[in-house]
Design brief:
Blueprint lengths: L1 E7 L4 E5 L7 E7 L5 E13 L8 E5 L3 H6 L9 E5 L4 E2 L5 E3 L7 E2 L2 E7 L15 E8 L2 E2 H7 L14 E9 L10 E6 L2 E7 L7 H9 L9 E3 L21 E6 L3 E9 L9
Parallel strand pairs: 5-16, 7-13, 8-18
Antiparallel strand pairs: 1-2, 1-4, 1-13, 2-3, 3-4, 5-6, 9-12, 10-11, 10-16, 11-13, 14-15, 14-17, 17-18
């Protein structure tokens, strides 16, 4: 099933099943995304798509594609390289990626397969790992390279945690529709130009290994979102480098899931009304 989280034209947040042949509509799903779900007969118009989940944690994997490790001139890791993105970085399809006013000049794109955990997982084996996966979606691990590499002395997390730096969507595709997440075509497209064109088969650590490995050190809660790494072709390794600019449009495409598109703008420096 393809599940979307969306705002109706009347302003209500709902879950629904999604048919790509009818992109403006969804059939309402009753119940809990991580519990019992029931597809109703009620069809409503989609006002605006949201990120498919509101994750309690976002765990991300660095240097997990062979080609990407080669283009960065870094040795392939012997175990998964993990960092954490902020929950406040999550946005949905068609929301704007905002170039931060403290570092707008080296913001990069990263196409990634996101794994959504469906039930609590701790100390699970590789063989049983997929039983704990609810489904998959597209992700863009947006990264401010100057903050990631230079300003924070290669402590990656801050450069990847700015607001709007984790677009997710357009839908959550349940595990039964993707029997092998380790063989999916994955691309990023910037203003119509293909920048990354690869397959998840190039991952150094596959989905099962990542889920099992992460569960050894922390409890994976329902909704935990795992970004599984990006293939070669990112902007900062190109000659000359290619970074996101105001007015750009970046799209992430993954086979069997769909397309996640976001525009790019500039963050306003005014303080939000925080109450």
């Amino acid at each position: 099933m393809k599940i979307v989280r969306f705002v109706t034209e009347g302003g209500k947040i709902c879950l629904g099943s999604f048919d790509p042949a009818r992109p403006g509509e969804a059939r309402i799903i009753a119940g809990d995304l991580f519990g019992d779900l029931e597809q109703t007969e009620q069809t409503v118009r989609i006002g605006r798509l949201l990120s498919p989940v509101d994750p309690p944690n976002i765990l991300a994997v660095g240097l997990n594609y062979g080609h990407h490790a080669e283009e960065t001139n870094i040795r392939r890791p012997e175990m998964p390289v993990i960092f954490i993105k902020a929950n406040s970085s999550v946005i949905g399809p068609e929301e704007m990626i905002l170039l931060p006013h403290v570092g707008p000049d080296q913001v990069d794109y990263e196409a990634e397969l996101a794994v959504i955990i469906g039930r609590k997982a701790k100390n699970i084996s590789r063989e049983e790992a997929l039983e704990y996966v609810l489904g998959y979606t597209c992700a863009n691990d947006v990264s401010a390279r100057d903050w990631q590499i230079e300003k924070q002395k290669k402590q990656w997390s801050r450069g990847k945690r700015f607001d709007t730096f984790c677009p997710l969507g357009p839908c959550l595709v349940t595990r039964d529709e993707i029997p092998d997440p380790n063989r999916l075509a994955i691309r990023s497209i910037l203003n119509g130009r293909v920048m990354q064109d690869s397959n998840t088969s190039d991952m150094i650590f596959d989905v099962q290994t990542l889920v099992s490995d992460l569960s050894q050190s922390l409890t994976l809660l329902p909704g935990t979102t795992i970004l599984t790494g990006t293939p070669g072709g990112v902007g900062f390794t190109r000659k000359p480098p290619v970074f996101l600019k105001d007015g750009d449009r970046i799209t992430i495409e993954i086979e069997r899931i769909g397309s996640l598109s976001n525009g790019v703008g500039i963050e306003k420096t005014t303080r939000p009304d925080v109450r």
